[in-house]
């Protein structure tokens, strides 16, 4: 069965940087699940999955436009320290979570004052060419409920 729109796809991945260093992997963990064709996955990864079959292993190197985006050089903002989530004491270089109107966002702390911090709102991997080693673990037709909700349910997907 080839991957196409309205299918729930489960996969394992290893993410590598330009030098081939491993940045992330779900090796030994539950596979990631997403609803194909519903903007639930990075565009480049979803495009690479199109037409693949269960059991296929492959690598794809993607430009920033198809993963975490191009760096916004004006991506600095000042925020109240009380809005930074993830630690009690903040230092430059640390990563924090900030809640926004579009949901939670990962930021990098640049400067810390007594009450305010300057953060870089770019994703830490923005602007980088990345290689994904992918393995399709499972693929099935989505249920009507998953299609209506716009995301996969169950292991590796969304839980209500």
From TrEMBL:
UniProt subcellular location: Cytoplasm
GO cellular component, as recorded: cytoplasm
Listed Pfam families: FKBP_C (PF00254)
Reaction equation(s) it catalyzes: [protein]-peptidylproline (omega=180) = [protein]-peptidylproline (omega=0)
A Gene Ontology molecular function term of the record: peptidyl-prolyl cis-trans isomerase activity
Domain PPIase FKBP-type span(s) in chain numbering: 4-79
EC number: 5.2.1.8
InterPro entries named among the record's database cross-references: PPIase_dom_sf (IPR046357), PPIase_FKBP_dom (IPR001179)
Annotated GO biological process: protein refolding
Summary of the function given for this chain in its UniProt record: Also involved in hydrogenase metallocenter assembly, probably by participating in the nickel insertion step. This function in hydrogenase biosynthesis requires chaperone activity and the presence of the metal-binding domain, but not PPIase activity.
Protein name per UniProt: Peptidyl-prolyl cis-trans isomerase
Database matches in Gene3D superfamilies: 3.10.50.40
UniProt keyword annotations, A-Z: Chaperone, Cytoplasm, Isomerase, Rotamase
Domain of life: Bacteria
Source organism of this protein record: Shewanella loihica (strain ATCC BAA-1088 / PV-4)
Family under the similarity heading: Belongs to the FKBP-type PPIase family.
């Amino acid at each position: 069965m080839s991957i196409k729109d309205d299918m729930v796809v489960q996969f394992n991945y290893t993410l590598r940087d330009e030098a081939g260093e491993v940045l992330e992997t779900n090796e030994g963990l539950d596979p990631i699940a997403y609803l194909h064709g519903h903007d639930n996955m990075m565009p480049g990864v979803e495009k690479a999955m199109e037409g693949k079959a269960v059991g296929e292993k492959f690598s794809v190197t993607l430009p920033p436009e198809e993963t975490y985006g191009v760096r916004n050089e004006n991506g600095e903002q000042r925020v109240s320290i009380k809005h930074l989530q993830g630690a009690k004491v903040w230092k430059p270089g640390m990563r924090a979570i900030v809640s926004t109107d579009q949901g939670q966002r990962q930021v990098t702390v640049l400067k810390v004052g007594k009450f305010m911090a300057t953060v870089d709102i770019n994703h830490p991997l923005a602007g980088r060419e990345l290689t994904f080693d992918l393995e399709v673990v499972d693929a099935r037709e989505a249920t009507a409920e998953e299609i209506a909700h716009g995301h996969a349910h169950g292991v590796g997907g969304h839980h209500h």
